[in-house]
Amino acid sequence: MAELTGARWRTSTRSSSNGGDCVEVADNLPGVVAVRDSKDRDGGTLTFAPAAWRTFVDGVRSAR
After folding, report:
1. Which of 43, 34, 30, 45 is nearest to 9 (CA)?
2. How far apart are alpha carbons 59 and 40 in whole angstroms?
3. 20 with 47: CB under 8 angstroms?
4. Which of 4, 7, 15, 63 could staple 22 via S-S, CB 3.0–4.6 A?
């Protein structure tokens, strides 16, 4: 499991502030991007290699 100490979590600027279903991303850590559920911050965390995360984000953007 990746060490997440020092993770700076953020939500998308497109996330609403009314308690919607959101994820938080920490992409400030060396060699890993972490993702968690904003409603369950103590729950599980997914981690990705930065290149894999970038491929995912680029795919989502191109599908819009």
Report:
1. 34
2. 26
3. no
4. 15
Of the listed ranges 1-5, 7-11, 14-18, 60-64, the one predicted with least confidence: 14-18
pLDDT in tens, 34-58: 999 988 888 899 999 999 999 999 9
Q: What is the pTM assigned to this prediction?
A: 0.80
Which amino acid does the sequence have at 60? V
Give the bridge partners for 47, in sequence order. 34
DSSP state of 55: H
The SS3 assignment for 16 reads: coil
- Both structure tokens of 20: 């919607």
**Helix (H) / strand (E) containing 62:** helix 50-63
